[in-house]
Queue: 4 jobs
Job 1
Amino acid sequence: MKKKLKELNEKIQKEQRGIYNVSFNEKQSTPTNADLEAIENAVIDYIVHYIKGWHNVKKIKYYFL
């Protein structure tokens, strides 16, 4: 149990150090795959909703009168 707590504490300290370095020392950070996938999915959803919104006949039916 103590070993797991020690490992967890080390991970938290590394994360805090990394956040500090990026924030105050102007170091570069690399986004993780999960972050990149989330951004990609958000962009795809936005594009799909944008296209569907403009081509939905019920929304723009007054153009066809």
Job 2
Amino acid sequence: MSTAASTDPKHKGTVVTGAIGDDVHVIGIRLMEYALRQNGFSVVSLGPLASQKEFIDAAVETAADALFVSSLNGHAEMYLPGLRGACVEAGIGDILIYAGGQLTIRRPDWDDTRRHFEQELGLSRVYPPTTMPDEPIRDLAADIAARRAKGSSAKKGA
């Protein structure tokens, strides 16, 4: 991420986006990318068929605030385990990780799906396929603002 972008008060953060694993469905993530840009975020788009390594490498290279992982084919259960741990190993263990779409092939209760991906796999937030872009964007803005406020209050106390 360029220094200019990080000091621009209108710049809200940098997000790496893509469809993970063997997923080629990109319409949803393209709409999310458009909405993110319209709301002041920089977007690094990996497109379809993105690996965990590609997400992590792009996040490290751009000092990204978040990963937005899309899955419409239901294979997120196969491709997201280990992502948080790989982020930790890469030195970005505290990065926000959001996932959305049809995350599983089976159709369990959404609360069970959310619990699995957030509590067991360590994702920050997950969204069902019917989610409109404004909800994760609101959440992302709030999550980044909270982290920045926490970081500046920690610096003031140092």
Job 3
Amino acid sequence: MQQSDTYKSRKSKFLKDFGIYTIGVFGTRIITFLMIPLYTYFVENPSNYGVWDLCLQATIFLLPLSTLQMREAAFRFLYDEDENAQKTKIISFIFRTLISNLVIIALSVAALSIVWDFKYLWLTFLLLFSSSFHDVMCQVSRGLKRNDIYVSCNILNAFLVALLSVLFVALLKMDVEGIFWANIISRLCICVYLQFRLHILSRYVKISVNCREIGKEIIKYSLPLIPTSMCWLVTTVSDRFFIRIFVSDEMNGIYAAAIRYTMILHSLALVFYQTWQETAIRQYNTPDKNQFFSKVFNFYFYGLGVLLIIYSYTLKFCYTWLVGPNYQEGANYLFIMGFVFLLGAMSSSFFDLGYQCAKDTKRAIPAIILVAIINVASNLAITPLLGVHGVIISNFISYLVLGIYRFIDTKRYFKISISANTFAMMLMLVLGTALYSFDVANMAHFIVFAILVIISICIAPKELKYMVINKLNKRN
């Protein structure tokens, strides 16, 4: 009875946190989602949009270096801490390190600008600078258990990006530069907002405080995350660079616009990751963690699978009016790109947390290095022959290998039992990928979509069915 009450309590807490993060993430993603038609309409040349996307991916790739992964450390160390004195040491060390690092990067960019005349070099640096402060301060707010402020920051940032994008891109016709400035200014505004709400810099950052000991622990935790994150990003963002090299800038822009729609899946994965990160840390030392973690894993895979089916077919029917006429080809890649993302999400937002819970982040390095090598090698071999499909196949192979490796390696932390429903969903997604690629009338695709939805309902986890039935009975 006590175990049942404990399960209900943590399930209730998980669902409550999930709801809070859902408001922030999906509110943000809906606004960002609506920006794609704006960008693809006013940035008429897909090549220009492709350049923006490459600069954005380069920024994302460099964030682990610019922050030394203090983003993750900020949350992990602050979340376990209750004493203000210790919080001051943690935050002081993180911001000292961040500022020093960004100064070094600024000097490096200045030197690079002498020998490389790239139009968007300094704008890319400003995007990196603003993103570094924004991400670290947001994770500090989570570590301080102010999820309400964290969520409000996400929504406010999205609104600012949208408003400034309309101003700079649509009204002032600034093209790609307008997208840069919209993102830079919005992130800096959020930093000011966080300082106003939490007084992070004035309350917790002290020049005189001695944070050497906690600094060693933070570095020990965060440094292994740098190669892990960068190799992970090699796997996730290298596709744009290979398309640009082996296909064309135009196709890179088309691919970049299409992959933006995977943000629907990314939103759910991000909400889950943020919620699961807190829950997994709290439940890591409980006696029934294997049972609880397995149940969460199977629910998560099923949820992502259902969302993938709904999102990919809905977009296929609507894609002609969601993007500009020069970007229509991207509709052909939606399902398989979503499937590839699902495989990656299972590793990054579920299994990787085993290393974080145990503060054993160095064990995450070998697998991701191996997968990065596989990804680059397969892209070099396949992409020149198959173009965009080669990139997608390379990513599929990479994430499949990573998922299997993580499943085996994380057994030292928890043991996951994969249900028959999850295997059935996997087979259905493979079938859906094959059927989605056929060039047939929309009515045929609608029939396939309806069949997949019906099968999804049939293979739903029993607990989910009981939950829905109980809700319906209570209403009646």
Job 4
Amino acid sequence: MGKLDETMFFDFGDNKPNDVRGTLKTVYDALEEKGYNPIDQIVGYLISGDPAYIPRLNDARNLIRKHQRDEIIEELVRYYLADQVAGGKKEKN
């Protein structure tokens, strides 16, 4: 049957982590500018899914809603663990 029997793959590329990082930076800056504790507010959003934790300033609320919460958590864990692993390797040398 040709192409109808083949599995198709879609690759978002490596832009997704950078996109999430950029969004988190924008959100963090907007929260600081509004005088909120950025960590508390982002955690509140990630746990509840309620966008009211994120201000509209600099379009932060719309930007963060473009990402699934699990994608954001995945990127945070990836970034944290990469830093920990790299840090651990540096200490051994």
